[in-house]
Design brief:
Helix content: under 10%
Distance between the termini: 27 Å
CATH topology: Neuraminidase
Shape: globular
Strand content: 35-45%
Number of strands: 26
Mean pLDDT: 96
Largest sheet: 4 strands, antiparallel
Strand order of the largest sheet: 1-26-25-24
Radius of gyration: 18 Å
CATH architecture: 6 Propeller
CATH class: Mainly Beta
CATH superfamily: TolB, C-terminal domain
Length: 320
């Protein structure tokens, strides 16, 4: 029996970290308690254990998902900027990747570093602005692998590719298709190429239950942010799932879903889904000395969400 079965949270009891953050979509936790979050005022904001903050890097255009390498540098996807950046700890930044196969990357969404120091990059869509793909129901998302051979596309024709991560054994690459809101997994071959995908878990997390970011815990459960339902769910290894918390607006979700299907959806429809207590959560990471302190980013909140989990998270490469 999983130690997470039956675990729920009252959204009103969730605590907060940080202040004045702008679009803190993704969070990285270091072993010493330092937190990093993407921040539209620059590239990322560092939150020290004593609460002091520093925003680093220039405006790159919606810094979104990010990873940390073994040297402590951040690898950051710029969603509307269409590039992948390296942000050094002293604030210096450089472009790591801005095109592939001679073409612009598009709306770069997320970066993940595995135990072999390979970099996996998800691209939401080739369209910029990225909202064109949402309204047009366009399936042109893809996944890039960067290793000693250089960058190459390893999966294509995906629907709004969001976060991507490898499981503990690194036998499967998991990827979110934000619309319709499902999780895929691909077998990973030794050379980094991917096998055929299969759906893992539910079709979605309810009406408007578009999945965004996710993280593995030490038991192999997958914690998934439901951005428009203002919630968090857990998908168990057997594919079943449960809701940990949510703060939905049912009528708004119904209307948004209909507009998405008809191709008339607009950015304001996403913003209207923000809940009373939680607003548009996008990602989750495990931190703290025991990796049981969860931190969640969002599109709309000026602070990070935080709570204690009943299980430790799976350590990321920079923590191993």
């Amino acid at each position: 029996m999983s130690s997470v079965r039956g675990f729920t949270l009252d959204p009103a009891r969730i605590e907060h970290v940080g202040q004045g953050l702008v679009r803190p979509e993704c969070v990285i936790a270091e072993a010493d308690g330092t937190l990093w979050t993407s921040d539209a005022r620059g590239i990322a904001t560092r939150i020290d254990p004593d609460g002091r903050q520093a925003t680093l890097g220039p405006d790159v255009g919606e810094p979104n998902g990010m990873a940390m390498d073994r040297q402590g540098n951040l690898i950051v996807a710029a969603l509307s900027g269409g590039k992948v950046y390296k942000l050094h700890r002293d604030g210096r930044s450089e472009v790591l990747l801005d095109s592939i196969d001679g073409q612009p990357l598009g709306a770069v969404n997320f970066c993940f570093v595995d135990s072999r120091d390979r970099l996996w990059i998800s691209v939401l869509t080739r369209q910029l602005p990225w909202w064109l793909a949402v309204a047009g129901n366009i399936r042109d998302g893809y996944i890039v692998l960067v290793d000693e051979k250089g960058p190459r596309i390893v999966a294509d024709n995906l629907s709004m590719t969001n976060e991507v991560r490898l499981d503990a054994d690194e036998k499967f690459l998991y990827a979110v298709e934000t619309i319709p809101g499902r999780l895929l997994r691909f077998p990973v071959r030794d050379d980094g190429s991917l096998g055929d995908p299969e759906q893992f878990g539910p079709d979605n997390l309810g009406i408007g239950g578009y999945m965004d970011g996710f993280a593995f815990d030490a038991e192999g459960n997958i914690w998934v942010a439901a951005v428009c339902r203002n919630g968090l769910s857990v998908i168990f290894p057997d594919g079943s799932h449960q809701t940990v918390f949510e703060d939905p607006r049912p009528e708004v979700l119904e209307a948004m879903t209909l507009k998405q299907k008809s191709g008339t959806i607009e950015p304001m429809d996403l913003g209207a889904c923000a809940g009373d207590t939680v607003q548009l959560p996008t990602s989750i990471t495990f931190g703290g000395p025991d990796l049981r302190t969860c931190y969640m980013g969002s599109l709309a909140m000026p602070r990070l969400l935080t709570f204690r989990a009943p299980v430790a998270g799976l350590p990321l490469a920079h923590l191993r």
